[in-house]
């Protein structure tokens, strides 16, 4: 490996090893080594960052601005924290329409208002034509750990229940559709949404909520593999329990894509103590962004991530390796 | 104005109005409106962000990695705060050499160690060939306000003294030289350095240190204009007191460039109560990065930024408008 490949940013196992080898080992410290979506710092401060390079910049159901706010709000939330303050840094290609920036900023403002966060610091760089593709946005964010929170990717134990907060693959397929000119009827919109309010309500269940993770690049499959790996457990899910929109499902079978690999930007995967599973499900279903929430499986001690198909057979879930679709976020 | 121009990112007055109109007015809140290099949040937390797009990625005296650490360390420091934790987010063009990433990461590690900060969270995105130019790095940072700190761009009062911590324009001219193939004898290196230790020592002077600002894009001239504008004062500087390397000075006169417009990445401009000016100067000169520090002028009530030339005449300092040199940081 002497040159960076698209798959090094694809969210799958190639990206994980690239990041471990190139960054984690060198930057090595107790906070980074938590390997969570956000770092937990002293004083219950939670800190995270993401750069957004989605293409196209405007897609059905959202745009890079809403994505940049929700992505960072959600990464903080998945650590069991309340997001408070965001930074916003723009790299803009010379010639990019100013009206498009205004639209993007408006949608950042709307998303920030909805999530109840403030954009408190920023930066703007402009690069020559062809030195960037339109606009890239970085957001970093600071939050404060919920008092009740006790979530970690390492918390999974056999018997725990796995819940997903809604339909799978909407963002990935909506962006793919926009890029490839696919027509969906009914129209398919990205799920890009801030999940902090849902997480805040889940925190009432305290340490019964063991793991929170948003299945973005690499999709639900990658999250399940990360949970299995970091908690040193297995996971079994059930195909007939997976909430997937019909049009996403049929587009996937047409294109030969596994919807478990598709990115989501307004969904979370939650691992809960089994005695609190229905309570957690109820909390999610009561939330604006959780009405299609479903229990999809459970943690076991197999060390494998398996799926029971609608035919009753069992198979290993494919782990995403390289990139399904570049620049999904 | 319907398309973004290079000058919108050039650090001069065009960038200031672009940012005010497009971002500040929309994101409008008490923290962002401080208009400092970093936001001061509740709990004495200081938060900042910068994206780095410097070209070339490796330049005499540094690289984009060292720049990305020092830039954010310095922005936190200029708020009178101690930098603690940084994020690092990479946008990499497909095909970028992995060995170059390793060199950049090594230099980030060195700079972070020198500054005493930790890189605790990160992100990696890869975009297609020609969708970015090599590598862009965003760093955001969190710091904690020094107990003694009382700095703000609005603090300048007539009679205060203006000090610069060393030679002016080294970074800007080093990058320009690397890009244009200019040969300097002796070689000219960028000054890219972390200034947090120097600031920490200056804090012993408590509220006698009124303003700290690092003159990056737009150079010393832009910082003087921002101070004059935000503090509602004038500033007079003296050409014969400005520390400038001979080779920077001669390259500037050859190229018709004002060194006051050249970017610096390891210098600060400090406004100090006049009774503490020599003490502040001594502290700076004792620091590794401040040996060429000099008192360059004073605040007055003229409302103008003026320079007394070596011929004894007075003129208005030119304010940078567009971009002198794109992608300097």
From TrEMBL, chains A, B:
**Where is the PurM-like N-terminal domain positioned along the sequence?**
36-144
Database matches in InterPro entries? HypE (IPR011854), PurM-like_C_dom (IPR010918), PurM-like_C_sf (IPR036676), PurM-like_N (IPR016188), PurM-like_N_sf (IPR036921)
- Residue ranges occupied by any PurM-like C-terminal domain in the UniProt entry: 157-306
- Top-level taxon of origin: Bacteria
Similarity comment text for this entry: Belongs to the HypE family.
PANTHER family per record: CARBAMOYL DEHYDRATASE HYPE, HYDROGENASE ISOENZYMES FORMATION PROTEIN HYPE
Q: What is this protein called?
A: Hydrogenase expression/formation protein HypE
What organism does the record attribute this protein to? Thermoanaerobacterium butyriciformans
């Amino acid at each position: 490996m002497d040159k960076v490949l698209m798959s090094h940013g694809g969210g799958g196992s190639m990206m994980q090893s690239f990041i471990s080898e190139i960054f984690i080992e060198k930057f090595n410290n107790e906070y980074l080594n938590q390997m969570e979506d956000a770092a937990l710092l002293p004083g219950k401060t939670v800190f995270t960052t993401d750069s957004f390079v989605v293409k196209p910049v405007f897609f059905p159901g959202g745009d890079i601005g809403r994505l940049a706010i929700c992505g960072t709000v959600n990464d903080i939330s998945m650590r069991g924290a309340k997001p408070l303050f965001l930074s916003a840094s723009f790299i803009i290609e010379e010639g990019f329409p100013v009206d498009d920036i205004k639209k993007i900023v408006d949608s950042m403002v709307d998303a920030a208002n909805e999530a109840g966060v403030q954009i408190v610091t920023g930066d703007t760089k402009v690069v020559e034509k062809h030195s960037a593709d339109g606009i890239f946005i970085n957001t970093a964010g600071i939050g404060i750990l919920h008092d009740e929170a006790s979530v970690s990717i390492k918390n999974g134990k056999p018997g725990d229940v796995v819940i997903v907060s809604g339909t799978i693959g909407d963002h990935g397929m909506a962006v793919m559709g926009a890029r490839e000119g696919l027509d969906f009827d009914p129209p398919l919109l990205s799920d890009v949404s801030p999940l902090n309010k849902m997480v805040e309500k889940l925190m009432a269940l305290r340490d019964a909520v063991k793991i929170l993770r948003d299945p973005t690049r690499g999709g639900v499959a990658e999250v399940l593999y990360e949970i299995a790996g970091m908690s040193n457990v297995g996971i079994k899910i059930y195909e007939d329990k997976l909430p997937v929109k019909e049009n996403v499902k049929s587009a996937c079978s047409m294109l030969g894509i596994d919807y478990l690999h598709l990115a989501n930007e307004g969904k979370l995967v939650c691992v809960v103590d089994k005695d609190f599973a229905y309570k957690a499900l109820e909390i999610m279903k009561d939330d604006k962004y959780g009405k299609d929430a479903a229990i999809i499986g459970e943690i076991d001690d197999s060390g494998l991530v398996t799926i029971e198909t609608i035919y009753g057979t069992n198979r290993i879930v494919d782990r995403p390796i390289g990139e399904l679709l570049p620049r999904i976020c």
